Amino acid sequence: MILASWPSQAAIEEQTVVIRVIPTKEVEGQLLEGEKHVLSKTVILRLPTRVNIDRRGIDIDSIRCPICDEDLESEDYLFVSCVIAVEIWKNILDWWGISNVGIKNLYDVINLADRVPLEPKHSNFFDMVVQTAIWSI
């Protein structure tokens, strides 16, 4: 019989990274904490990319990107380096009139709204566009 156990709170906190906090209200000059984007390191490593499927010992024909066949299909490659992802981010940045922003890895994508020169009132909308693009890829 196999018994499963829940990870300790310390183990969960060690594997969790708070990406950004979006203030939702300003009351008497104080920003109230709003929605948190939380990305678990274990969740990223569990995305069913071909590299992760292969790591789990599942036999697949190839671990290369099925779209372009130029590199291994990892999280960073899928969301940042694949020709489709590069085109998506280029189009989004052009659409918003943003230039000179480098995207090197998945964390750069997730934190993109914090790194672009936008007014705070526009930053939340831009972040929604970025999160929707991540979801669609």
UniProtKB/TrEMBL annotation:
Pfam family, any one: zf-RVT
Domain of life of the source: Eukaryota
One term of GO molecular function: RNA-directed DNA polymerase activity
Domain Reverse transcriptase zinc-binding: 44-89
Keywords: Nucleotidyltransferase, RNA-directed DNA polymerase, Transferase
Name of the protein in question: RNA-directed DNA polymerase, eukaryota, reverse transcriptase zinc-binding domain protein
Protein's organism: Tanacetum coccineum
Lineage: Eukaryota, Viridiplantae, Streptophyta, Embryophyta, Tracheophyta
